[in-house]
Specification:
The protein has 370 residues and is mostly beta strands. It folds into two domains: 145 residues, Methylamine Dehydrogenase, Chain H; 133 residues, YVTN repeat-like/Quinoprotein amine dehydrogenase (Methylamine Dehydrogenase, Chain H, 7 Propeller), CATH 2.130.10. The chain contains two helices and 29 strands. Strands 8, 9, 10, 11 and 12 form a five-stranded antiparallel β-sheet that branches. A four-stranded antiparallel β-sheet has the order 3-2-1-29, with no helix packed on it. A hairpin with a 5-residue loop joins strand 21 and strand 22.
Length: 370
Amino acid sequence: MERRQSSSLIWFRGAFITFALFAAMDNAANADSETDPPGAVYVLSNQPSGNSVLVYSRSANGTLRFEASYPTGGKGAGTGTDPLASQGSLTLGSGYLFAVNAGSNDVSMFAINGTRLTLLDREPSGGRMPVSIAIKGFSAYVLNAAGTPNINGYIIDAFGKRLIPLPDSRRALAGGANAQPAQVSFTPDGDEILVTEKGTQLIDTFRVGALGYTTGPVPHPSNGVTAFGFSVTNRGYAVVAEAGSGSVSSYEVDDNQQLTSISAAIRLGQTAPCWLVTTGDGRYAYTANAGSGTLSSLRIGADGTTRLVNATAAVLSAPFDLALTKNSKFLYVREGNGAVSGFRVSADGALNPIGSVTGVPAGAQGIAAR
């Protein structure tokens, strides 16, 4: 066992030699441009009989058209409006698409070619009921919500096109069995990982080392009740939705695994803001408020201070999860009624409806856009 683990670590060190080149290629491939070429939106079906990714082509004006469904090889976690209670179950990163299979306790990795997907690998999640996955460069971490909640690491082999489990990378969450985690995500520099715990009102921070291994967690009390979905801006500010108190907070993320509160529990006047995204320039945040059927918009200052702009920036039937395109020109929302609705994002952060598509099955969970 020791010899095998040592060989794995030698391979990881060799792989990291090419990290800078790989990261540069990834950045170039995903760089924002003045034009807005067509893209795609992805939704995870999360069906217990067989999980799959639903693919919608996105035109240059943002309208969607269903193209195909691609099996993940695993199983989803059942039906209902919000069976995973998470953000990040379907994630784009490092040129690939990653999906959790909460019903079979594994994760899938897809290659992307336009609107076509190719399943490359499926690996055990390192726990029970994976609900969220985070990607940064060669590193990936999955968040397992059941049993003893934990995060578990992987190395992305861009040459062999595989997802390789990182030995001894599993880390339990601070809240233990009561954590009820919602999301895992890297900071922009990749030096920290954050996890929100709905059940304990905690936000965990983990320090990420050179080989992808983490130390921690360090738990931090959430400003509001039920820390759920969040986003870390390009300036390194974590903006967190707090479903239980109908609020949003912003924090500065320090390299020593500390969170410093900036704007505490800003009331939206809306019910159950569970999911939150921020624009690529770090200026605006949007929440999906499941209980009140609305989206809210917030403005983020250069110092991380956050203020409410429009409590009802959009009105929908039942918003469950949302995603921005890479250049943040379009916002897409998965609704509980089986629709995906799109909005054009104005320079001032206002949302302009551009239509919907229907046919998403009950129990679907997760959305990603490019």
